[in-house]
Amino acid sequence: MRPTLALIILLLLTGCVSKEERAAKHLLAEAQIAYQDSDYSHSAQLLDSLHRTYSGAVETRKVALHLQQLVRTATARRDSIRMTSLAEEGVARLDSLQRLFKLIEYPRMPDENILRYRGYDPSAANPEANFLDAYIKADGKIQLIAGTSAPKAQGVTYLRLMEEAGGTYVLSDTIPYDKALNYRFRTGGVTHERLTLSLEASERLGAFVHATPASTAIRASFGPQGKSFTLDARAREAISATYLYFRTYVGIKNAEGEVEAATARAAHFGAKAHLSTPEKQ
Prior knowledge:
Elements: H1 5-14, H2 19-36, H3 40-53, H4 58-98, E1 101-104, E2 114-117, H5 122-125, E3 131-136, E4 142-150, E5 158-163, E6 169-171, E7 182-187, E8 190-196, H6 199-211, E9 218-223, E10 228-230, H7 233-275
Antiparallel strand pairs: 1-2, 3-4, 4-8, 5-6, 5-9, 7-8, 9-10
Helix pairs in contact: 1-2, 1-4, 2-3, 2-4, 3-4, 4-7, 6-7
């Protein structure tokens, strides 16, 4: 028969024990009370202190080990519930955002399908304009593409966004001309240059646009000596919404990963708690 943990602690407290064991048992009793009050963090701290301070209290530490596994199991289960709630909230927000995006399908290459905010596609509207495009790729990641055009190649390798009022700015990564991420093409006597930004740069520039107040103008400049232009309201709205969609998607994935990890921890510590249940002598 396996006695309850409270009974075991009571028996230990009333027995004939050393001074170290007695002090350890009092700490164990405090940890038990914290556990019963669902104050798992405090209970875990008390148990850690018990193991560090009273290494010689062997019998009490055996009981404490069992309680420690119970605390870890309860903590993991609570984390799982909390992260499940966060994931569900994120899904609801993403569903709401998705109504503002248009799916652009490529039937022969479904992996190339993208989402565009209200169909925002600046290069299609005017291929010769300076622009900063933004969309969501099939894998849920944000993609920014910067474009500029001139009679001759400008040799652009990066993009800078700057608040015109305060001078705060952010840079993309530098992309040497490689005919892939930095490529050029000519039509009608005009050279078009395109920079496909990395995920990190896309997120960084997207965050900058999203955080900048609408009343503050943002100047986009191609470096090292390319053209510059002011992001218009439509571009800023699309980039900001695309960034928000991406961060919400990432938040959901992170929460789902935490749920899976917490569930695994709960199962692991639950099994250890069962194995460590003290037997009545």
